[in-house]
């Protein structure tokens, strides 16, 4: 390295003395006129300048190039030196291929002296650095030996040696002259390299760092204190042409991929490894130690589990299920159980028990259904599918305020979206809350599809009872009026249904809609009569003050006709029985309850449906249409 630095300094001095014109001018291109009135370009640069450019390029490659963590151990500095030499040689060959005129200059770069010394420290192949050309005339013995350039000698050593042997045994002559391109390997960072007979087997070495795997069972797996764990590669997306990878290369590639996105860094955080989800820890350890799965699958699983832990109640439900399982097992064995006992670390870290509890017990599905249910109860009726595909209704925001049909009933109001210590007794807070509508959508398509189906199912379970009451009202009123309820139901728009859902009467079972309409009409007539009576009193008092007493207001025919006395209850019954609604044919609907029952749960209902995209409207209208179809079929 000292000779390389000295050569670089010498080339820098030569460049400063010989190309002062180029250095001092404000050169925007390399086609400036030089001595001899000849136009020069990049092809015509002197050899000193070409080697100087390559030297500084090597300095940049050495600091930014790929370096496997396998060789970062201080005891393996020789192996790291050989690997970096082959890597840098490939980069110089790329520079040589830029311009054909540069190749003769770069073949004499001092880097090749170091590269030959690193690959062949004992000099076992030094005899290949000279060639003896055939004599010019037949029978002549006057032949001269020609020394090839160090670049040619380096290529000869590399092409006839096993690269795996040279990297893993840098201080011996193992693999020198034993390589052949008939047995070659293609690596992602070093290109195609020859192999020997010992390393032609699959999984005999890592295809990324060329770390050699233990050759037999007697050899210690922890070679020089570092585990190798060289197994067959299953991640063809990350390493397409690699047959096997080692533990260090898998860990390096995995954590490099994790650092690309903040969501992945948060989902797989090594500083809080013990607090991660059990399935995330197991998948990461299986990939790094055993090479099972792919990085994409591991990160997708970790992101899904992180989302479930943060935005659903999966963790709490899993602990409750484990506590119930422990109680059942102790009850079967006759042991005492204390509800105040905490779960042990062995029970919380047992993958088999956790897997049986979460998957077979349906805890994950319960958590997703609970998330979708709370989303609807808080008034955010936007389907997860619309958020995944970023759908909108003609560019409108996917957010609208929501109102509660029964704000006076505290037991029917959803308060799960409120922050800790926050109350909404006066119903002054806007819904849906930021905790609901600002939560990110599920990170993967599979999980988003599961939440979409759960959202549609919960929408049906919550809105079907009030939809049944709305249809029941239509049927009873249309039967009393002698009209077709199906025609009226079809003419109802989504906004009409939303308006009916915001009415508290839709959330009661057993209402007598006929009597309710009659009472509403009688109440309206009383209100109008009182208004007319008040107007007549005002007009009569004004006429009395003016001195016109031709007719007594008490005996006035107008007053007698427009101010009826309140009828008794028997009169109301007679009015109901004598109305045309009483003679309507019976309707096959649920019986009228003496005391109507309030439904639960009651969600916040959006004030409009204009903000709902395609999948959200589909889930809402499916509830309405499914009940109408079921009623028509019955």
Describe this entry's structure for a reader.
The chain is mainly alpha-helical. It is 50% helix and 5% strand. Strands 1-2 form a two-stranded antiparallel ribbon. Strands 3-4 form a two-stranded antiparallel ribbon. Strands 5-6 form a two-stranded antiparallel ribbon. Strand 5 and strand 6 form a beta hairpin. Helix 1 crosses helix 3, helix 6 runs parallel beside helix 7 and helix 19 (445-481) packs across helix 25 (614-633). The chain is elongated. Mean pLDDT is 79; it is low at 1-10, 12-34 and 547-588.
Topology, please?
Blueprint: H1 2-18, H2 20-24, H3 47-64, H4 77-96, H5 103-106, H6 111-119, E1 130-131, E2 146-147, H7 150-159, H8 163-168, E3 180-187, E4 191-195, E5 222-223, E6 226-227, E7 231-232, E8 244-245, H9 247-258, H10 262-267, H11 278-290, H12 295-311, H13 314-333, H14 345-348, H15 351-360, H16 363-377, H17 384-388, E9 402-403, H18 434-437, H19 445-481, H20 485-490, H21 494-501, E10 508-509, H22 513-546, H23 557-562, H24 569-578, E11 597-598, E12 605-606, H25 614-633
Antiparallel strand pairs: 1-2, 3-4, 5-6, 7-8, 9-12, 10-11
Helix pairs in contact: 1-3, 3-4, 4-6, 6-7, 9-11, 11-12, 13-15, 13-16, 16-19, 19-25
Defining traits:
634 residues, mainly alpha, two-stranded antiparallel ribbon, 25 helices, 5% strand, elongated, disordered N terminus
The strand count comes to 12
End-to-end CA span: 91 Å
Q: What is the molecular shape?
A: elongated
The average pLDDT value, as a whole number, equals 79
The major β-sheet equals: 2 strands, antiparallel
Structural class: mainly alpha
In the sheet with the most strands, the strands line up as 1-2
What is the number of helical segments per DSSP (H or I, 4+ residues)? 25
Integer-rounded radius of gyration: 43 Å
Report the uncertain regions.
1-10, 12-34, 547-588
How much of the sequence is in beta strands?
A: 5-15%
Give the % helix. 40-55%
């Amino acid at each position: 390295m000292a000779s390389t630095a000295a050569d670089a300094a010498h080339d820098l001095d030569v460049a400063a003395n010989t190309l002062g014109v180029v250095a001092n001018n404000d050169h925007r291109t390399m086609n400036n006129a030089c001595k001899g009135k000849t136009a020069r370009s990049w092809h015509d640069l002197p050899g000193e300048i070409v080697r100087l450019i390559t030297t500084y390029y090597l300095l940049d490659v050495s600091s930014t190039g790929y370096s496997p963590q396998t060789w970062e151990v201080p005891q393996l500095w020789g192996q790291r030196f050989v690997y970096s030499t082959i890597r840098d040689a490939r980069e110089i060959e790329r520079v040589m291929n830029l311009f054909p005129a540069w190749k003769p200059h770069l073949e004499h770069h001092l880097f090749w002296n170091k590269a030959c010394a690193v690959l062949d420290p004992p000099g076992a192949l030094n005899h290949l650095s000279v060639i003896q050309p055939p004599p010019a005339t037949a029978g002549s013995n006057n032949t001269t030996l020609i020394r090839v350039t160090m670049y040619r000698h380096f290529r000869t050593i590399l092409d006839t040696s096993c690269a795996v042997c040279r990297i893993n045994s840098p201080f011996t002559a193992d693999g020198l002259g034993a390589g052949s391109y008939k047995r070659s390997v293609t690596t992602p960072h070093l290109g195609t390299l020859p192999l020997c007979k010992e390393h032609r087997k699959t999984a005999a070495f890592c295809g990324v760092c060329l770390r050699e795997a233990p050759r037999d069972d007697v050899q210690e797996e922890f070679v020089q204190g570092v585990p190798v764990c060289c197994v067959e590669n299953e991640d063809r997306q990350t390493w397409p042409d690699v047959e096997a990878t080692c533990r260090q290369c898998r860990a390096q590639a995995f954590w490099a991929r994790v650092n690309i996105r903040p969501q992945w860094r948060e989902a797989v955080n090594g500083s809080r490894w013990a607090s991660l989800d059990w399935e995330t820890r197991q998948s990461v350890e299986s990939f790094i130690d055993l090479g099972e799965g792919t990085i994409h699958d591991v990160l997708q699983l970790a992101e899904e589990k992180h989302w479930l832990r943060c935005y659903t109640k999966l963790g709490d439900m899993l602990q409750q299920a484990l506590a119930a399982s422990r109680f059942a097992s102790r009850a079967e064995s006759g042991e005492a159980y204390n509800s105040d006992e905490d779960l042990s670390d062995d029970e919380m870290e047992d993958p088999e028990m956790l897997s049986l509890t979460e998957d077979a017990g349906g805890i994950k599905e319960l958590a997703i259904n609970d998330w979708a249910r709370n989303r609807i109860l808080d008034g955010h009726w936007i389907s997860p599918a619309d958020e995944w595909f970023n759908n909108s209704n003609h560019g409108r925001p996917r957010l609208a305020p929501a109102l509660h049909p029964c704000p006076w009933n505290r037991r029917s109001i959803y308060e799960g979206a409120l922050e800790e210590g926050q109350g909404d007794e006066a119903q002054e807070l806007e819904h849906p809350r930021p905790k609901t509508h600002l939560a990110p959508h599920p990170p993967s398509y599979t999980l988003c599809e599961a939440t979409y189906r759960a959202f549609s199912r919960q929408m049906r379970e919550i809105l079907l009872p009030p939809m049944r009451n709305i249809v029941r009202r239509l049927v009873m009123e249309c039967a009393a009026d002698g009209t077709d309820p199906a025609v009226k139901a079809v003419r109802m728009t989504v906004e009409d249904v939303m308006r009916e859902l915001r009415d508290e009467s839709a959330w009661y079972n057993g209402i007598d809609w006929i009597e309710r309409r009659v009472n509403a009409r009688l109440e309206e007539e009383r209100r109008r009569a009182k208004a007319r009576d008040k107007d007549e009193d005002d007009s009569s008092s004004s006429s009395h003050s003016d001195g016109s007493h031709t007719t007594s207001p008490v005996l006035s025919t107008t007053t007698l006709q427009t101010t009826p006395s309140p009828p008794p209850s028997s009169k109301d019954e007679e009015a109901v029985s004598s109305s045309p609604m009483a003679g309507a044919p019976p309707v096959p609907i649920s019986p009228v309850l003496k005391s109507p029952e309030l439904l639960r749960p009651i969600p916040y209902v959006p004030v409009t449906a204009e903000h709902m995209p395609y999948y959200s409207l589909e889930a809402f209208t499916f509830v309405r249409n499914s009940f109408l179809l079921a009623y028509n079929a019955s």
